[in-house]
Structures are given as structure tokens and as C-alpha cells.
Write a structure and sequence with these properties.
The complex is a heterodimer.
Chain A lengths: L7 H11 L51 E2 L16 E6 L5 E6 L5 H7 L18 E4 L2 H6 L5 H7 L9 E3 L12 E4 L14
Parallel strand pairs in A: 1-3, 2-6
Antiparallel strand pairs in A: 2-3, 4-5, 4-6
Chain B lengths: L7 H9 L10 E2 L19 E5 L3 H13 L4 E5 L8 H4 L11 H9 L4 E4 L20 E4 L5 E2 L13 E3 H8 L18 E5 L3 H11 L12 H8 L5 E5 L11 H8 L4 E3 L16 H12 L8 E6 L2 E9 L2 E15 L8 E11 L2 E4 L3 E2 L13 E2 L4 E2 L1 E2 L2 E6 L2 E10 L2 H4 L5 H21 L14 H11 L6 H17 L10 H7 L1
Parallel strand pairs in B: 1-21, 2-3, 2-5, 3-4, 5-21, 7-15, 8-9, 8-15, 9-11, 10-11
Antiparallel strand pairs in B: 6-16, 12-13, 13-14, 17-18, 19-20, 20-21
Helix pairs in contact in B: 2-4, 2-11, 5-6, 6-8, 8-9
Classes of the chains: A alpha/beta, B alpha/beta.
The complex binds flavin-adenine dinucleotide and FE2/S2 (inorganic) cluster.
Pfam families (chain A): Fer2
Protein name (chain A): 2Fe-2S ferredoxin-type domain-containing protein
InterPro entries (chain A): 2Fe-2S_ferredoxin-like_sf, 2Fe-2S_ferredoxin-type, Adrenodoxin-like, Adrenodoxin_Fe-S_BS, Beta-grasp_dom_sf
């Protein structure tokens, strides 16, 4: 079974070339070749993962993520399938700039949605607002204003988030609702490889 | 098999041994353009990685490598029988959500190409560092910071009643090394001073002030719970050398203390803390506002305070009890102009703070593993980190940093003992990316190209010759289960084993 587009190995191969930036100072970068993806199952769900509160399964092979495609939601672990006619759309923009739109049910939070679709999104504290690894950036200020205001606890964690912006939120705290149908969020880079400031 | 020690660049590096500090400017990859060695490796080329340390930095790196190079064989060596480093022995028992990351680590450990080797400290006293070199393509140093900084003040190491925060935290969290700390929490003065203003200091203050009822259901050790239930501490003073804007603690930990039932906060004098915070950056502004807001009422049954601009100069006792701490002498400090308050100087004015219990919480410290420097890994003694450029171990030279083949580092031993799990995770992802990108990119690793590296299969022989008993993941499962069962009987999440013997008895 070929790895799903958008799964980690694919993203890796895409991102390897952007790592050139990191080497900008030296001219001796490794050649940025694109080896063919292996056929080994790559995403972590490929071996059984048991979470205390969640169980993720590998994506059914029929719903590979495709760029700029709406993926209709099947049975992803703990997400509730939306009732026909009540699907809400949410779009994630990965750090490479790829967009993935999903149809989801009211009440699902962004972390669960992102993880169920195997996006590169961590939830180190399991969605209990204690880690800031699920940081997302709402693209549109007006949409951001429609969200319920973050509470003190969320703001406290956001204060620690890397690359905080005016429209940052914690994915685990944002639940889908009718009035934010069409929400679009960016996933910040989860590594600092490209940050020149690290060369202190 | 060619030993890495024979690599000419490495021998000269070993001669330089411990450096006082390393200033990494940029990293040279190991080859030059046109170098015949620059051939990309295939993703299925056999790759063996040894990880030293099973804290979050080691596990998150393993996770990253697994997801990018699933064929990589990873062996993780851990000094203690039990995994997870500071997630188990640092993170406070009343922060169970923070420990949720263990679920991810457990998943990583069950990957078919992953092996956990606990009860195996790497270093001279047990498994020599050099025994890993011929058996792996790469080694990741993620062994954290197992020591703590000292103040080097009179009385610090001789008087009773002075503890390092690391030891106290280890004690309540069941770290075998500090099982027998037995801090005396029953001094009649009911006062404790914490020196240092990071999150660890606030953890110590919170554990001292939270009533035991708030801790009973957590995984705090029973002996600590018992000692805390007899505690007479009513007042905790957390003292820092610099001002509130320089304090290292974060808002979540301050807010937790501000919302503890029956605990009041003594207001910080307005002369010391900014009153108009509107021009401060977001995080500082919110932190200052939270401190200024304080608690609804003060004083209450128990109280705490933050003291700024005070630097300890001596720990003192009273003539009636010359072995016991009775007071700490502080010198007032003032910010040095032009340093934005980052630097302070003593003003010559002293004051004594009376307390029979003091905790030194001025930071954890990493040390080189013995045999590591000899293997060409430069260690920065001043900053307590492995010399590196973004996690690639790098040997500083006048021309720039030269990457040490096959050596990587991450977590607290890479960047110093600061940062939460989220930042440790990012750091680890960097390390994982670097390892995989370097490997696939054809960068030089340990040994000769094409060498077969046997990993644990080979190390195992030396391991048993030394007489070590390895703990594998299935053994940890047993310890884990036994601890949870002990906990269940006590109505708590888990009751940890406090000694390595107890842990090994289960295996
Ligand atoms: C008291 C305290 C409270 C904290 N609370 C929080 C919190 O609430 N939230 C949060 O996000 N972060 C918290 N942190 C920070 C978090 O714990 C660290 O960011 C993180 O654990 C660092 O990970 P690490 O892997 O670099 O080191 P560690 O977690 O220290 O792991 C290093 C591992 O290496 C092992 N080791 C050492 N030497 C050897 C050797 N020679 N051979 C083999 N193994 C070896 C050690 O036994 C240990 O298991 C806290 C830290 C402390 C100290
Ligand atoms: S998952 Fe930890 S804050 Fe959202």
C-alpha cells in the first residue's frame, strides 16, 4: 500500500529541500535528492497505538489526502461523523503550504480533527490545555473574532507557544460550530531548523 | 572495524577535552562538494541509532526518526530501570496532564524496530561509552541534566535544613537517589525559603503549600504524602537575584499558586514591579498583571511571597543549635544600567531572613558522560551543554564548527536545563530531522560506509559480561502494572517504587 499523500514521509520529502535554507551559510549542502518513498507503512497509526483517551487507526486507503480536496469524513477514531447536510468545513494549511479541507461535525475540536487526518499536529497533553503543542494560527482576523475568547488557561499556554501571533489559538480548545463553518487555520512549523536566530 | 577514535579530527578534539565554552557559529557538514562520499543513501539502507536517555527529548527524537525513516533500528539506553526521565521524576504530581505525553512514548517504544534497554547507565561505572561506537551508525545524547548547580556559599553544604530543589522534587516523585532525603518540614518557625525563581522553585512552593488532600489522588509517593501531612510550613518566600521581569517562572505556575485554597500572596511593593504594563510584550504583561492582582485576600492561613533583588551570601545557624540553619543572609542588589535589568550588582546592604528550611533552586546541570569527551564529543563546561549546532554535535574550530560524525544531541543536555516539554519536543524534532536528512543525504556517520552495525545484538554480550541486567519494555510494563495496582489500593493513580531494588524485583 503506498503511503497516503500528506503522510509524514511525503511531507518529509517535500521539506527536505526547504532545509536548504538552513545550510545557506555553507555551500556544502547534501544533494537534495528525492528518493522514492518506501513501501513500508509510514504513519504512526500503522502500528497499533493505544492512547488513554483516544484510539487512532490508519486512514482507510480510500481517503488519501489530496491537495485542495475536500475529504469527506468517514470513521476516524473518536470523531463523530457529521450528519448529512450538517457538515462543517475546516481547512488546515500545513507548514509547507498544502491545504487540506475536511467535513466535520459540530463540536469536534481542531486537534482531534488534525490528528485523525494524520496532519503533523501534536497534542502532548492530550488536549488538556497544558502544553501548547497544538498551536494553530487562524488565517482570517474576522473569523478569529467569531471564535469564543480564549480563557485564562488557554492564554497562559499560548504565552509559551513558539511563534505566537495575534490570531493564535490552541487547537484542542477550538470546537467547530456553525458560525465558523469554513474556518481556515495554519499549522506552525514544529521545528526550528529554519530559524536563523538559533545560531546565537 | 575501524574505530571512530582513529579519526584524525577526533583525536585532536579529544586532546582539547573539556572546553570551557563553545561558541557554535555554523556547522560544516562532513563532506565537500565533489567528495566521492557524497552519495545519497537509500531509505532502506540499514541504520542503527543509539539513544542515551529516555526522557522526552530521546523519545520525541525516536518518534520523529521512526516517522521519517521507519526502517531505522533504534536502541534506547536508560540509566534507571524505569523510563521517561523528568516526566516521571520532575513534573509535579499535581500536573498529571503534562505527563500525558507518556502515551506517545509508549507507542514509540512498541514500534517493532525499537528496543528499550533500561537499568543501563552509559559511562565508566557500567557500560562504557566506547562500547556503543562500533555498533551504531549514530548516537543521540539526550541524557538531560542529572546534577544541580550550587551557590558555593558558606554553610550551604554543612548546615541541616538546606536542600537542593532537585533532591526535594526527586524525593516527592520517587527518584531512588533521593528516597531517603527526609526533609524536616516540622520546624516550629513554619517558614521555608526557596532561592531561585524558575518553575521548579514554584513547584516546590506549591507542593509545600497545597494541602495533602489535593495530592492524595496523584502519583506522589506515600512517604512524601505522609511527611507533608505533618508539615508545619505556613509561609514560603521565593527569592530572586533580579527583578520580576527577569524571573524565569511562567504564568501558569504563578496562577496555580494564586488560586490555591487558603493560600494568600503578599503583594509585591509597587516600587519593585511595573505598574503600567501596557507597553510590555504580551507574555510579560500578563505575568506582571497576574502578580499585581495577587490573591483575593491576604494574609490567609498559609501565605507565600516573591522577593526580588536579593542575592544570598551565607547560610547561618544560631549559637544554640550550630548545626541547623536558622537564617540566610541576603545582599540587596540593583540593576546595572544599560542591561535592561538583566545584570545586577550588590548594593552592600544586607538583610537576614529567618527560616529553618531552605531550598536551592538555581538550576539543573548537565555533565559529560565519562568516555564521551575521549570519543571526540566536545563539552561546554561553562554552559553545561554538549557543543552543537542545532543538535549536530560540532567541534568548534577557528574556521567554523566541524560536525562530529554520527553524533547528535537534544533536550536539556543540548540547550541547557530550561524549557517545557513543548520546547523539548521541538528540539527533538530538529534532532530527528537532522539525523534523517544527514543519513539520506550521504553525510559521514560512524564507521566505514557499508559497515554492518549490530546494535544491541552486539552490545548485549558486553552488557552481560559486565553483569548488568537489562530492563526491556515488557519488563517496564510489569513495573508499570505493579505500580498502578499499588496505587489502586491507596485510591491513587500510581504508587511508585522508591528504590531500584524494588523495581528490579518485579522484573
Ligand atoms: C522539577 C521539574 C518540573 C517540570 N515541570 C514541567 C511541567 O510541568 N511542564 C512541562 O512542560 N515541563 C516541565 N519540566 C520540564 C521537562 O521535564 C523537561 O523539558 C524535559 O524533561 C527535558 O527532557 P530531556 O529528555 O532533555 O531530559 P530528562 O527528562 O532529564 O531525561 C534524561 C534521561 O536520561 C537518563 N540518563 C542520564 N544519564 C544517563 C546515562 N549516563 N546513561 C543512560 N541514561 C542516562 C536520565 O535518567 C533520564 O531518564 C519540568 C522540569 C523539572 C526539573
Ligand atoms: S494538546 Fe496540549 S494544549 Fe492542546
Amino acid at each position: 500500500m503506498p503511503p497516503p499523500r500528506g503522510s509524514s514521509i511525503f511531507r518529509n520529502l517535500q521539506s527536505r529541500c526547504s532545509n536548504r535554507l538552513f545550510y545557506a551559510a555553507d555551500s556544502i549542502l547534501p544533494p537534495c535528492t528525492r528518493p522514492t518513498p518506501t513501501r513500508t507503512p509510514v504513519h504512526p497509526g500503522a502500528y497499533n497505538r493505544t492512547f488513554a483517551t483516544r484510539t487512532l487507526r490508519p486512514l482507510p486507503s480510500s481517503i488519501y489526502l489530496r491537495q485542495f480536496t475536500t475529504t469527506s469524513y468517514l470513521s476516524h477514531g473518536h470523531l463523530t461523523p457529521p450528519k448529512p447536510g450538517e457538515e462543517l468545513k475546516v481547512t488546515f494549511v500545513t507548514k509547507e503550504g498544502n491545504e487540506f479541507t475536511f467535513e466535520v461535525a459540530e463540536g469536534d475540536n481542531l486537534l482531534d480533527i488534525g490528528q485523525a487526518h494524520d496532519l503533523e499536529m501534536e497534542g502532548a497533553c492530550g488536549g488538556s490545555c497544558a502544553c501548547s503543542t497544538c498551536h494553530v494560527i487562524v488565517e482570517d482576523q474576522e473569523m478569529y473574532d467569531l471564535l469564543e475568547e480564549p480563557d485564562d488557561d488557554e492564554n497562559d499556554m499560548l504565552d509559551l507557544a513558539f511563534g505566537l501571533t495575534e490570531t493564535s489559538r490552541l487547537g484542542c480548545q477550538v470546537k467547530m460550530k456553525k458560525d465558523i463553518d469554513g474556518l481556515k487555520v495554519k499549522l506552525p512549523a514544529m521545528t526550528r531548523n529554519l530559524q536563523a536566530s538559533d545560531f546565537k | 572495524m575501524k574505530s571512530i577514535l582513529k579519526h584524525p579530527s577526533i583525536r585532536s578534539a579529544a586532546r582539547r577535552a573539556h572546553r570551557t565554552s563553545c561558541n557554535t557559529r555554523f556547522v560544516n557538514t562532513l563532506h565537500q562538494p565533489g567528495d566521492p562520499r557524497v552519495a545519497a543513501r537509500r531509505a532502506d539502507a540499514p541504520f542503527r541509532l543509539a539513544i542515551i536517555g529516555s526522557g522526552p527529548s530521546g523519545f520525541y527524537t525516536a518518534y520523529r526518526v521512526q516517522s521519517k525513516l521507519p526502517t531505522a533500528r533504534i536502541d534506547m539506553y536508560e540509566a534507571l530501570p524505569v523510563p521517561f526521565g523528568l516526566v516521571r521524576f520532575g513534573v509535579a504530581p499535581d500536573h498529571p496532564e503534562v505527563k500525558f505525553c507518556i502515551n506517545k512514548f509508549d507507542e514509540v517504544a512498541r514500534h517493532p524496530n525499537f528496543k528499550y534497554i533500561g537499568n543501563t547507565p552509559i559511562g565508566s561505572t557500567s557500560l562504557p561509552f566506547s562500547s556503543l561506537l562500533p555498533n551504531y551508525n549514530a548516537i543521540l545524547l539526550s541524557y538531560g541534566a542529572s546534577k544541580d548547580k550550587t551557590l558555593k556559599l558558606p554553610g550551604e553544604s554543612t548546615l541541616l535544613g538546606i536542600h537542593s530543589a532537585r533532591a526535594f522534587v526527586g524525593w516527592y516523585n520517587g527518584l531512588p537517589e533521593h528516597r531517603d532525603l527526609n526533609p524536616n518540614l516540622e520546624g516550629n518557625d513554619g517558614k521555608a525559603v526557596v532561592i531561585g525563581q524558575g518553575n521548579v522553585a514554584l513547584d516546590v512552593a506549591r507542593i509545600l503549600l497545597t494541602g495533602v488532600d489535593g495530592l492524595r489522588k496523584t502519583d506522589i509517593t506515600e512517604y512524601a504524602l505522609e511527611a507533608l501531612s505533618r508539615s508545619k510550613i505556613k509561609e514560603v518566600e521565593v527569592v530572586g537575584r533580579r527583578g520580576p521581569l527577569q524571573a524565569a517562572f511562567t504564568i501558569k505556575e504563578v496562577r496555580e499558586l494564586m488560586t490555591l485554597p487558603s493560600v494568600g500572596f503578599e503583594p509585591v511593593p509597587p516600587s519593585v514591579i511595573p505598574q503600567d504594563t501596557s507597553t510590555l510584550p504580551r507574555a510579560k504583561r500578563r505575568l506582571m498583571d497576574t502578580i499585581n492582582k495577587g490573591t483575593k485576600s491576604y494574609p490567609l492561613e498559609k501565605n507565600w511571597k516573591l522577593s526580588f533583588f536579593n542575592s544570598p551570601t551565607a547560610f547561618l545557624s544560631s549559637p544554640s543549635n550550630p548545626d541547623q540553619l536558622s537564617h540566610i543572609r541576603f545582599e540587596k542588589t540593583a540593576p546595572v544600567e544599560g542591561t535592561n535589568g538583566d545584570k545586577v550588582v550588590g548594593t552592600g546592604e544586607h538583610k537576614d531572613v529567618y527560616a529553618s528550611l531552605a531550598f536551592r533552586s538555581i538550576g539543573y546541570k548537565s555533565e559529560p558522560i565519562s568516555g564521551m569527551v575521549e570519543a571526540g564529543i566536545p563539552f561546554d563546561e561553562k554552559n553545561g551543554v554538549v557543543c552543537n549546532a542545532l543538535g549536530r554535535v560540532a567541534r568548534p574550530t577557528p574556521e567554523g564548527d566541524i560536525q562530529v560524525p554520527g553524533m547528535y544531541t537534544t533536550g536539556w543536555v543540548r540547550r541547557g536545563p530550561t524549557g517545557v516539554i513543548a520546547s523539548t519536543m521541538m528540539d527533538a524534532f530538529d534532532a530527528g530531522d537532522n539525523i534523517v536528512n544527514d543519513w539520506l543525504g550521504g553525510v559521514e556517520f560512524l564507521g566505514k560506509e557499508g559497515d554492518v552495525r549490530m546494535g544491541w545484538e552486539a552490545v548485549k554480550r558486553e552488557h552481560s559480561r559486565i553483569g548488568l541486567k537489562a530492563v526491556h519494555w515488557s519488563d517496564w510494563d510489569k513495573i508499570d502494572k505493579a505500580e498502578k495496582e499499588r496505587g489502586m489500593k491507596l485510591g491513587k493513580e500510581r504508587e511508585k517504587f522508591g528504590t531500584e531494588e524494588e523495581m528490579m524485583a518485579i522484573v
